[in-house]
Specification:
3 copies of one chain form a homotrimer. Chain A is an alpha/beta fold. Chain A has helices spanning 2-10, 70-85, 116-134, 151-157, 185-195, 197-206, 212-218, 230-242, 246-265, 268-279, 282-299; strands at 38-41, 45-50, 55-60, 67-68, 91-96, 105-106, 139-144, 148-149, 161-165, 171-173, 210-211, 223-225. In chain A, strands 1-2-3-5-7-9-12 form a 7-stranded mixed beta sheet, with helices on both faces. In chain A, strands 8-10-11 form a 3-stranded mixed beta sheet. A two-stranded parallel ribbon of chain A has the order 4-6. In chain A, helix 3 crosses helix 10. Chain A is globular. The two termini of chain A are 16 Å apart. Chains A and C meet through helix 5 and helix 9 of A and helix 6 and helix 11 of C.
């Protein structure tokens, strides 16, 4: 069954947002026009770096829904590290090249019926992405051009700024409890740093997904624009961040975020251990299995 | 005098909200219709547990204003512990069976002209209630069908969710400074976890009581409904909480609240000591005496 | 150059808010009428203490823009300490006697082309003012009758309450990054205690200055009133704070603020060291120099 589901998942599951899989209700989506000096393309992430502005765009392009598999996580982190070391790059915009989805979050099949060792390696990769992104010296903007549940939300709130497509059919949130799993404390900290303790408590407790307008209202995203202007608006907004003195901006960002980053850094092994113990429980595996079956049925 | 005041208080003082004592302005209040499999009734709290849904309702019924006396505090905590151990119970709604008042808060007479020993025991009982309620594994909803000052507010904000009667004559807040006393740090932490640091600073510093609509606006309560629908709405809302996977919900709640709970747990003796030193000061006793005299005059 | 700039600055620069220097767009400003029992006047700060109410008004009067020079900082702190020890004083209102400006913040010339020793002494004076004001036992209200960037914002948010002139031309914020410098963690903590983590992150990262209406919206100030009513409204508001039991108010305030104060107290030397290392960097000195030149050009 796992293998069948795996194929299913990689073909469009990854869960969290069934409406993503329904027929194309939006019609063709126009991608914003891009003028770039250098284009480095890899399998799962396409990078456009405009060396005249110092702004890179990372396009997640892992169909059908940019599930954060081990492969995508690793490539994401590596790409970010390379941009971080590239002197010509000062800011990065993270977005999706797929229609209607930013990222569907962590790939459930990486943690369903896999070995504890694999779960541990997978979790380290999740930690690594967050540590690099939340603590990045680059200015970072999420151009959220589709739904962004769970891990997709984590990627978004780890950026400096969030611009989302103004469409109530798109939603964002840390909805882990809906799957019978738990957002760890550093997901929680990142969320609380964004929308405060109480909204986080309510959102995580009930596994709430917020529509784009609701997300704006609670401060989970910073701005809504029409879908075809998300990336362009991110580019314009990035110019404001890059107008700030580089050193002052980085020191300020580090002051705001270092305590949250350090909490995980001093505790990574225990966090991996907690995750593996939790996710490999029979009851949790059963919840994940039921969730995958539900998605399969819905799809059929 | 203390004895006379004691009788007065138990007949309707407990302070904080003089308008509570004025003539019945609301007319008869219809209690929502209840269908319950099991009803356990005790002197100060009536419990209705619907075993088909797993939802218990705790009705505080200590006339005239549900003052949190040692007796009510103890019964509250014991009732909650019993529900917590009852496998058929998964959520609890806390409400009042008295008209126009949820709870008037800590009974002043437990701390006015009583021995330091008594004050200390009383405070331990307050701590115990909060520790059990704020850290409860049950889903908890406050159905605030009347005013809820001071300790009444603490009970409310220790729940997972707050539904209040939509009546501007009802108010809620930690108004301790109005009596010349001080909300301790764990009251403050619970409030700050609900409405943030700044609103808490302002509210505690000025002893602010918020009307129901104001309370909604600052996030001190989550929803307003007509008075006769408060408990029913709580029941409907509870269904959403209980739809979440039990284990995931509990682990998530613990992650949000454990640091705040642990702060008191590691510091209970010192907190009792601080309270007793403060409350037994001549100046503080004098403030409480003046407050009680004011209430007596207002009543007469 | 430094000397020339010094003269320039003391004649109206101090930076941060170029529009302050443009011609008088507001016409004559009426100062509120004052009735005071005792008036102690010093060079940079005029103090009116009304002994019948216990309320002192501290008028910053250091033309052109109340730059926080070493001299003004020291006098501010000393004045506050004297009021704190004066039994007849229970509350203090901080305001400006200059048109259109509350305070332009730290005087850049105290940290531009001066010795590390001087920078260190200057920074200790900034710490001292904040420690005394944020931790004051007095009730404190900022009557912000003009723009209030950087250090002016710090003084404002260190008070218990903020009333600002309702004029969109006036702005307030911690805009340090605009000058290539960084607000230290205790500026950040004070801001986050006022408007929360996320708004602080955004504000500090982009060096945002909020117009009075925007500042009200995010909670950076508590109330807007017409400019000629700022001080009078502060006086009326102060009466509410002083109606609260003195001891209860002070203990509550200390509970809210002591953790933030203690963080700096246990770390003062390191904080001075960090500031001096940062501010004396060539790149930072260059940024300050460019900023001063820009102001000079704009003035000319």
């Amino acid at each position: 069954m796992a293998a069948a589901l795996r194929r299913l998942s990689r073909c469009g599951v990854a869960g969290f947002l069934p409406q993503v899989f329904s027929a194309n209700r939006h019609g063709p989506r126009m991608l914003p026009h891009l003028v770039c000096q250098k284009i480095s393309t890899s399998s799962k992430i396409k990078v456009d770096l405009d060396q005249s502005t110092g702004v890179a765009v990372m396009w997640m392009q892992s169909p059908p829904v940019n599930s954060l598999t081990m492969e995508l996580l690793t490539e994401f982190t590596t790409t970010l590290e390379n941009l971080e070391m590239d002197k010509s790059c000062r800011g990065v915009i993270i977005t999706s090249s797929l229609p209607r989805i930013f990222s569907a979050g962590l790939d459930i099949l990486e943690m369903y019926q896999t070995s504890p060792e694999h779960c541990g390696e997978f979790w380290k990769a999740v930690q690594e992405l967050w540590l690099k992104l939340y603590g990045s010296n680059l200015a970072t903007i999420a151009a959220i051009n589709g739904s962004s549940p769970a891990g997709g939300c984590l990627v978004s709130i780890a950026c400096d700024y969030r611009i989302m497509a103004d469409d109530p059919r798109y939603s964002i949130g840390l909805n882990e409890t809906l799957l019978g799993i738990v957002a760890p404390y550093w997901f929680k900290d990142t969320m609380a740093n964004t929308v405060g303790h109480r909204t986080t408590e309510l959102a995580l407790g009930l596994g709430l997904l917020y529509s784009a307008p609701e997300a704006l209202k609670i401060g989970l995203v910073d701005k809504l624009v029409p879908e075809d202007q998300v990336v362009n608006t991110a580019t314009l907004t990035m110019a404001k961040w890059l107008a700030i003195d580089e050193h002052a901006r980085q020191v300020t960002k580090s002051m705001m975020r270092k305590p949250t980053v350090d909490k995980l850094l001093s505790n990574r092994e225990a966090d991996v251990h907690n995750f593996v113990s939790f996710i490999t429980k029979d009851s949790v595996q059963k919840s994940l299995g039921m969730y995958l079956k539900m998605l399969k049925n819905r799809k059929a």
